[in-house]
Amino acid sequence: MKSVFKKIGLLVLLALIVMQFIRPDKNESGYESVAFFENEVQPTPEIKELLKSNCYDCHSNQTVYPWYAEVAPVSYWLAHHVDEGKEHFNVSDWQQYSDKKKDHKLEELIEEVEEGEMPLDSYTWIHGNLEESDKELLIKWAQELRKKYTSKE
Questions:
Q1: 25: Cβ contacts below 8 Å, ≥ 6 apart
Q2: Which of 76, 95, 117, 149 would bridge with 103, disulfide CB 3.0–4.6 Å?
Q3: CA-to-CA separations, 23 to 29, 76, 77, 90, 140, in angstroms, rounded
Q4: 3-state secondary structure of 120
Q5: Backbone φ, ψ for residue 62 (5° rounding)
Q6: Domain-wise residue ranges, the chain
Q7: Left (φ > 0), alpha (ψ -120 to 50) or beta: where does 128 sit?
């Protein structure tokens, strides 16, 4: 029985070593990927900083990766989180959204922040959680911004 566990352990170790050389694609387009969004919505400096430090890593094409993103299997886990975040809301795609979709995305942002679903717990464990005052500021900003897109309908 010991030899079976040894073989399994060696296979797992070999798999982890091989994983270090097969990397997921990185999500690093640079600032220009959020420039259209910021130009259109004109966030205050406070909101801009909140978005940059709490949202853009998973909801834009400009992820700033921590050092541990270089180690598999964490690199795969982070890539999955970023892909999933961008699937739901990607500010880098803002110019492709209709006004109705922009309004809907902002509505979802408000709901997710109000319900404590965003930012994810796995993100806040390392980066820290949003203060209640920051959440309120972000929600008020998004509510005001929604008026811009609902008035066009």
A1: 79
A2: 149
A3: 17, 8, 11, 23, 39
A4: coil
A5: -135, 65
A6: 26-150
A7: left
Cα–Cα distance for residue pair 118/107, rounded to 1 Å: 13
CB-based contacts of 120: which residues, under 8 Å, 6+ apart? 58, 81
Query: What pLDDT band is residue 146 in, cutting at 50, 70 and 90?
Result: very high
Condensed to tens digits (0 to 9), the pLDDT of residues 102-130 reads: 999 999 999 999 998 888 777 777 777 78
Q: 85, 58 in Cβ contact below 8 A?
A: yes
In 16-101, DSSP assigns E strands to none
pLDDT in tens, 16-25: 777 788 887 7
Q: What is the pLDDT of residues 59-74, one digit of tens each?
A: 999 888 888 888 899 8
The C-alpha atoms of residue 150 and residue 73 are separated, in whole angstroms, by 43
Give, rounded to a whole angstrom, the gap between the first and last alpha carbons of the chain. 69
Q: Which two tokens stand for residue 140?
A: 């008020």
DSSP 12: H
Distance CA 85, CA 108 (A): 12
Tokens of 127: 């980066």
Give percent of the chain above pLDDT 70: 96
Place of tokens 């500021």: 137
